[in-house]
User: Fold this.
Amino acid sequence: MISSPPSSNARRLFGEELETRLDEVLFASHSHRSATDIALGLEALTRSQQERVLHWAAVAAGTYAEIGYQIAAFAPKAFPLLDDAGFDAWVLAGLDAYDRHGGRAAMDLLRDLEGFCAGRDGLRPLARLSEIEARLTRFIHGLSGRPLALAAGAAAWTDTETIYLPTEQESQPEAGANRRLYKVQAVILWAQTRFGSFGSTAVDLGQALAHWLDTEDQGRCLRWLSALESVRLEARIAFELPGLGAEIAAVRGPWPAALAALLPRLYQPQATLADTLALLPLCLLDGKDAPRLPHAVAIDPAAALRVRALRIERDMKTVSRAISALEASAGSAGRPEQAEQRMAAPAADDASQLALEGEALALPPEARKAALSLVQDLGEVPPECLVPADPGPWQPTHLDSAGKRGGEDLVGHREADHRYDEWDYRRRAYRKNWCHLFESDVAPGDPAYVSGVKLRHAGLIKQIRKRFEMLRGEDRMLGRQPDGEEVDLDAVVDAIADRRGGLEPSPRLFSRRVRNQRSLAAMFMIDMSGSTKGWVNEAERESLVMLCEAIESLGDAYAIYGFSGWTRTRSDIYRIKRFEEAYDDAVRARIAAVEAKDYTRMGVAIRHLTRLLLREPARHRLLVTLSDGRPDDFGDEYRGHYGIEDTRRALQEAHEQGVKSYCITIDRHGADYLAHMYGAARFTVLDDVKKLPLKIADIYRRLSS
Amino acid sequence: MSLSPELSRITEEPYYQPTGDEVALFEASYARRLPVLLKGPTGCGKTRFVEYMAWRLARPLVTVACHDDLTTADLVGRYLIVGNETVWVDGPLTAAVRAGAICYLDEIVEARKDTIVVIHPLADSRRVLAVDKRGEMVIAPDSFMLVVSYNPGYQSVLKEIKPSTRQRFVAFDFDYPEAAVEAGIVSREGGVDAETARRLVKLGELTRNLKGAGLDEGASTRLLVHAAQLIAAGIAPQAACIAAVARALCDDADMNGTLDDLVAAVF
Ligand SMILES: Nc1ncnc2c1ncn2[C@@H]1O[C@H](COP(=O)(O)OP(=O)(O)OP(=O)(O)O)[C@@H](O)[C@H]1O
Ligand SMILES: [Mg+2]
Assistant:
């Protein structure tokens, strides 16, 4: 398999190269069969087609070698008939047939290319959200200043934090058009949150609609509102992103007459919600329903305003806390006139500069984000934010989380192996010996699992090994050695010069090739919380195999531990591989048994593994955490801000002790708390968990070279 | 006998668009004989800034690109044999010190730590360079200035500046300039009209939103300038952006799809 296919204009592979690659990919099967003919057949394809064939042949061979052969053999015939997506569908149909009816059926299906194409042409022009979700999510992330999640819903609408889209779409005559429809709807919904469809300080949407909501006219009113907003937002989008504007216009078609009449006022980049609301009563007046646009989206002000209000409250707290911290550190806290100052927030489209009384404000990143989010929601940062926040004195919770909710019962009679402090951001202090940590081995699982993965990813593993061996083999010439394989010219010249100058020449005149000493110890901390169940866990285990293969060829010291937990009195650390252990059958069996358990109390796990890492004699120590989102624990405050702050603190502590951390998060919604939580650590967000096994080795390589 | 490399001066004013008070800060550092550390992502104008300041202060500029095979001798100098004689040749650092030039060590994290320590006595109040080979201490004239740069965004844990090095410098944070200013730079450097420049900068912004979510870095000002130059040379904007920005940013097929979408959104 290939982690990054070369661009389409890369050089085609020739027969011999193809044959080698095919042999790699299909090596597990009939070695007596030659791939020469197949390779010759593939020569005529473009490079990206060739890579596609190799990729799928490898995938298929992981299931059944014969299918891999068939795919490669039929590919030259398939490509004139099918586009890339069609080719993928053909392969998948073959694999599916194998799963359902066995090898014969799969062969028959793959051979009957014409039949497959005919069936495909007759397919419905359906587009599925799942096909485009990942790409659309990244696109919206690129557009937006504020992360928006994408999810399946009954209709296309947004609550201002998630964009909901139907799981399937078939209103357009062809699948491509239906996919474009998804994109355009998602963009309109993004624009609703970005360009103030839910109000601002100046305009209160709830109040403006109060007259119609809960009447029988409600539905008609919301349809008009959505249609008018589509006009206004399209103008705004077309101004900022002309290409996207053109794409929307193409899907929309000509304006319906009822909207065309309103264009002079509404189709203006500077029009606001106030313009829409001014026109709305006029539209509703004569009882007609709103014209239906092809890319119409629904609007649910009540739901959106609720989510928005919560966010505003949260953002305001964040900003005012940051501002009072700034003021305190500037020594001007408590000056009464401070509260009167207004923050000059620029228009929503250029919110990069926030200023207080003309002075640029150096807000910390998370507060800056919150401020920008406020500018998007309200058109400004409200002056109330400038009143120093009450830090809120620490109140002991009456419900001691663990005690009252049965946490203690879970512990049984075993004493904890270790106890760790936990950071309470509200107290600004540690809670002493707060977390009870239990360490145990992962019970061994299927001994054949690892070899299965290795078989499935044989090609990739080979590539990884080659690349890593290169890293390790990065020999360097060490100059000025007392002996060695070559003469060091610089040293000789120096020596001659020294002798002429009457100095004692150095006898170190040779250079010697030495292996680079990396002296790196890496600790991998793997999320085994309940939320990893399914795909994430699957990907984690595969990734561990890739990692081990990679690091083994490098020779770095490494250890792998899993973590999970159930309240503070039951934090579990599972040993998968200790530093001193070899990558042997026992370790492989434990990798196979990594499973989803309970919750994610991250801080304590980081502290414990940092401690283990510090015992390793290495120049560089690296802690890599792999998790699937927010820290979380059962029934106590760890779930929210507390957990984020504790995790941040634990990473900070590791940093102070010279441990470098790198956090890999699998989070399709690229959440905004990450930058804050990971503070001192570096991190990356993977939106697609299936890529983790392909990327993990590369990530490690980048970290350590 | 000793040789010193010829140092040239920048005679024509380089185009540099200030984005904050960096010019004044640099001049103050120069006046106070403080060394300067420029931090910032790739392609945001660090090198251009140093060139501009060298011109402004009318000092020669010596630039050294650091890499991990750079030795102390490469910086300080070595003996060569010419005919029947040994001849000392100053390295770029020594030459810069003697000439009272500005010495710019680009990407200092790439150099090995044991190489970097030679700049320590130069970068504190002693302001001397020890040329051990010749038993010479070269005292830096007032006009000598040391400038180093690095990109803190790199992910490797092995590449960081030691605190004892870092804490000798006045540090300037560089970042991509705000939209209107960046558009001005792109338009002027790339030779495109204001509207095209505005769209290119918009594209830059969109890619920077994806930093950490699939991209290691967003598009730098440099990449935007490249795209502008292609456009000015007659390439269609979309094609120019895909080649100069999207493909230059990453190899991942999925991410490239998204970057193409963003290019299409802007043009
Ligand atoms: N403020 C600016 N004024 C003028 N040109 C600029 C400015 N910022 C960036 N540029 C343009 O961007 C290009 C790249 O800048 P430069 O080479 O100085 O980057 P750099 O920060 O040194 O990058 P690197 O870290 O990769 O060396 C310049 O050639 C110039 O065209
Ligand atoms: Mg540079």
About this structure: Residues 15-123 of chain A form one domain. Residues B 15-17, 19, 40, 42-48, 151, 185, 189, 221-222, 225 surround adenosine-5'-triphosphate (ligand 1) (CB under 6 Å). The radius of gyration of chain A is 31 Å.
